[in-house]
TrEMBL record:
This is Small ribosomal subunit biogenesis GTPase RsgA. Residues 111-256 form the EngC GTPase domain. It is found in: Cytoplasm. One of several proteins that assist in the late maturation steps of the functional core of the 30S ribosomal subunit. Helps release RbfA from mature subunits. May play a role in the assembly of ribosomal proteins into the subunit. Circularly permuted GTPase that catalyzes slow GTP hydrolysis, GTPase activity is stimulated by the 30S ribosomal subunit. GTP binds at T150, K151, S152, D153, G200, P201, S202, G203, A204, G205, K206, S207, T208. Its EC number is 3.6.1.-.
Amino acid sequence: MSSAFPQALVPFGWDDDLETAFAPHYAAGLIPARVAGVDRVRCDVITEDGPLRADSTPVLSHEDPSLSPCTGDWAALRPGAQPALAALLPRRTAIVRSSAARTSHGQVLAANVDTVAIAVSLETEVDLGRIERMLALAWESGARPVVVLTKSDHSPDPAADAARVAEAAPGAEIIAVSAATGDGVDVAAAVLTGTVVLIGPSGAGKSTLGNALLGGDVLATGAVRAGDGKGRHTTVRRELLPLPGGGVLIDTPGLRGVGLFDAAEGIQQAFAEIEELAQGCRFGDCAHDTEPGCAVQAAIEDGTLPPRRLASYRKLVRENEWIASRSDARLAAERLSKWKTIHKAQRQRYKLQGKGRGEGAP
C-alpha cells in the first residue's frame, strides 16, 4: 500500500483495492481523484486536498462516449497549474442506457455506484412497466437496486402500494418515504448506502429526497404539473455530493426515456420468477406462447403470474435484442473500415516499393 494513502478520499469511496490499482499512476506522479461532475471538456473532481476544476480532454478521445469521464469515475489526475485527467480507473459498476442520440453506443449515467435508488412518486398512478425497466437497468449495472416510493403522504395506503410494487420488483427492497412529513427518511438513510444514485422521471421527487438525505436544501426542486404529474428538470447535470452519515449521493436529471443497452442479465434479474418458471417448460426454446407444457403459461392460467409481467418481459427482451443487433452491426462496420484502411496502406507500400525497384534497375 502507498505511504500516501489518501484518507480524505475514504468518505468518497476510496479503499485498499483502489489504492492497489492506482500504484502505476502513483509511479507516474499522478494523484487519485473522483469525478463529481462533467461539463463538456472540463470536470469537477474531488482530491485529497479538496475540489478542483480539471481538464478532461486527455481522456475524451474515444469514439464510444461510454468510455469518457462520467460522474462517479475514479481518475488519475495530473496536478499542476492546469490539472488534467490522465486516465480513468476500471469501473466496478456502471449504469448504462442506450444513447439519447439513438446511436449504437451506450451512455453512462453514473459509475462506481453501490446503490441505485429508483424514485417512484405516489402522487400519481404508479407505472409498473417503468419500474421494471429501471430495475433491469439497475440490476445490469451490478449495483443494488432499491425502489423508493416518494411522496407517501399523498397515498391513502402506502403499504398497499409497496406490496403492489414488490410483485413487480422481485429481489429489490421497497421503502416508502415522505420528505414533507419526514416519514421513512431515517429508513432511507439507513438503506441507501455507499455511492447512491437517484434515478427516475422528472417530478418523482428525486431532488427533494436527496435534500432530505443531505440534511439541507442543496439540490434545486420544482413543482409538479397538476395535469400530468410531470415536473421540470430542476437537476441539469449529474453531480456527486457527500452524505452526512458517510457515502456520497449522485443526483441525476429526470429521465424521460430509458432505453436498455446490452441488459440481458438485468432483464433476467428483473423478471427472476419468469426465468425460474421457464426452467420447468417442456421445451428449452419455449417462447411461452402456445407451446405444450409451458410452465409460464400455466402460471398465468392459475393466477400466480400476472399476464402484464410476461408482456413487459417480452417487450424489454425484444428491445434489448434490437439494440444488441445494432451494436453488432456497428462493430462489424468498424472492423470492415479498419481492414480497408490496412489494405489501403499495404497497397500504398507495395506501390512505393515497386517504384523503388524500378528506379534502381539498369
